[in-house]
């Protein structure tokens, strides 16, 4: 299968074999969006209209802070707060209090939307189309998929839900079997490592956890959180 502007980013996230490739894909998309809106795009009116309306979730506020440009973030926050005030707190007239209270509903929704989440989901949904085309049509790609360390549980569920939209009745079982084998094998190994981690606190195993070969056991708790949530614990 010939390389193209669509396949190159997918190949890039599957070349490493550590962690979840779809988490790498998501992280790459999120990083590009953060850099984009913290740069010149921050002053583009169509971008500001969207960021004013949607705001950002806690995780992506933290990501924007890491970009190191507090002025750009402050400018976006300033106009977003103006939008929040106008939408939720502006008085619309005396008789408004007699109508169904919308303030609570709007306040709840203001914490549920995020500009970066929306754009990331859009980008991921486009990239997954290319992934399934490559899995179906590129003989060299399936071995790259099979060598992955694992697929996290959120992306495992996402792939199973998406697969019927892109694969035919012959390709779908092949993909689902490969996906299940990959994830089940890692879950089993992880379960064993967590069990060994717990056993290491028995007085009979004192000092065992410090040996170099116990590295997978020492990291089992963090790896489990990553596997189950799709995010490394901070």
Task: Explain the overall architecture.
This protein has two domains: 1-137, no CATH class; 150-234, no CATH class. 68% of the residues lie in helices and 0% in strands. The protein has twelve helices and no strands. It is globular. With 234 residues, it is mostly helical.
Q: What's the short version?
A:
The chain is built from twelve helices and no strands.
Strand content: under 5%
Structural class, please?
mainly alpha
Major sheet summary line: none
Work out the helix count.
12
Number of discrete domains: 2
Computed CA radius of gyration, to the nearest angstrom: 23 Å
Q: Any idea what the shape is? A: globular
Q: Would you count the extended β strands for me?
A: 0
Regions with little confidence, pLDDT below 50 for 5+ residues: none
Global mean pLDDT? 89
Give the end-to-end Cα distance, rounded to a whole number of Å.
39 Å
DSSP helix fraction: 55-70%
List the helices and strands in order: HHHHHHHHHHHH
Write the SSE topology.
Blueprint: H1 7-14, H2 21-38, H3 45-54, H4 58-66, H5 70-89, H6 103-110, H7 115-137, H8 141-146, H9 153-166, H10 171-199, H11 215-218, H12 220-229
What attributes does this structure have?
single chain; 234 residues; mainly alpha; 2 domains; 12 helices; 68% helix; 0% strand; globular
């Amino acid at each position: 299968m010939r390389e193209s502007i669509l396949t190159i980013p997918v190949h890039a996230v599957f070349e490493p074999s550590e962690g979840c490739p779809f988490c790498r894909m998501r992280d790459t998309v999120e990083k590009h969006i953060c850099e984009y809106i913290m740069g010149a795009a921050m002053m583009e009116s169509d971008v500001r209209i969207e960021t004013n309306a949607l705001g950002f979730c806690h995780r992506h506020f933290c990501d924007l802070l890491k970009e190191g440009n507090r002025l750009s973030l402050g400018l976006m926050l300033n106009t977003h707060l103006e939008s929040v005030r106008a939408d939720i707190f502006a008085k619309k007239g005396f008789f408004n209090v007699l109508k169904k209270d919308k303030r609570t509903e709007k306040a709840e929704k203001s914490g549920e939307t995020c500009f970066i989440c929306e754009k990331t989901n859009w980008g991921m949904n486009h990239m997954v189309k290319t992934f399934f085309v490559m899995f179906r049509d590129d003989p060299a790609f399936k071995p790259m998929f099979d060598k992955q360390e694992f697929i996290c549980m959120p992306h495992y569920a996402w792939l199973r839900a998406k697969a019927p939209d892109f694969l035919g009745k012959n390709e779908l079982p092949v993909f689902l079997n490969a996906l299940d084998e990959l994830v089940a094998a890692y879950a089993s190994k992880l379960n064993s490592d967590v069990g060994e981690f717990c056993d290491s606190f028995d007085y009979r195993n004192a000092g065992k956890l410090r040996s170099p070969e116990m590295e997978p056991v020492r990291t089992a708790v963090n790896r489990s959180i990553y596997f189950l949530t799709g995010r490394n614990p901070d």
